[in-house]
Amino acid sequence: MAKKIAVVVRDRQGEALRMAIGLTLKDDTVNVYVLNRKLAVTEKVAFDLETLRDLEVKLYSNVADETEAEFVATEDIARRLPSYDHVLAY
User: How would you label 62-80 residue by residue, b for 16+ Cβ within 10 Å and e otherwise?
Assistant: First the structure.
């Protein structure tokens, strides 16, 4: 049975995105939440973002001007997280 997994990204952005890609191997539903700062888009992060888009992983952020993710208010993120089977924080 497929699981719903949330990856919460704070400090180790590159690692978190790489891990989110790996979590898609089991055909689980993976969503990524970037909190409190914009993604630092390096060459590696840009590749990971492109891969996540290709895999149809949804990216959300509580930073209004984040161009790489859909904006979701912090309160709404907090309401969504209990609906996941697993929440992994990075």
Answer: bbeebebbeebeeeebeeb
Q: Mean pLDDT for each 10-residue chunk of the chain (90 residues)?
A: 94 94 94 96 94 97 95 98 96
DSSP helix/strand/coil, 58: strand
Q: What distance lies between CA 63 and its chain's CA centroid? A: 13
Sign, Cα dihedral of 31, 36, 39, 40? negative
Domain ranges of the chain: 4-89
18 CB contacts (<8 Å, ≥6 apart)?
48
CATH number of 4-89: 3.40.1260.10
Contacts of residue 30, Cβ cutoff 8 Å, sequence gap at least 6: 5, 6, 7, 20, 23, 24, 55, 57
Token digits of residue 49: 């973002």
